[in-house]
Design a protein that fits this description.
The structure is a single chain. The chain is mainly α. It is built from 1 helix and no strands. It has one helix spanning 2-131. It starts with a helix and ends with a helix.
Length: 132
């Protein structure tokens, strides 16, 4: 009987422990579970907001890519304009060099003609003096 009394006491202790757990711990676990559910819902809402922000950043990235491409096109156009301006500058310098060479040639020829005219004039003057 002592053994069955011990078993009865042990069962009573187990029942009491189970009742304490159900009365004290179970409501706390349910409250924690409810709080975790609320936190999870808030985290889900935050995740959705971050998804929206990510999409907006993706849109901004695409716009930046578009702007970058336009800047690249503008850079190419400036490079082309700069190259054409340099080419025209070089062409103009060559043309001016050729014109200066032509002018130098003409100046030398006109100096030679002037010298010839002066010599002819001197000869004519001398012939007039000799003819008198």
């Amino acid at each position: 009987m002592a053994r069955s009394a011990n078993i009865g006491i042990a069962m009573s202790v187990v029942e009491d422990a189970r009742k304490v757990m159900q009365d004290l711990i179970a409501p706390e676990l349910r409250a924690l579970s409810a709080r975790l559910d609320a936190v999870e819902k808030r985290l889900d809402a935050i995740d959705k907001r971050f998804d929206g922000v990510d999409k907006r950043f993706d849109g901004v990235d695409k716009r930046f890519d578009s702007v970058d491409k336009r800047f690249e096109n503008v850079d190419k156009k400036f490079d082309d304009v700069e190259r054409r301006a340099e080419q025209r500058h070089q062409d103009l310098l060559r043309h001016m060099d050729a014109r200066l060479d032509d002018l130098g040639f003409l100046l030398r020829k006109s100096m030679e003609v002037k010298e010839i005219v002066e010599r002819v004039t001197a000869l004519e003057d001398r012939m007039k003096q000799l003819a008198h």
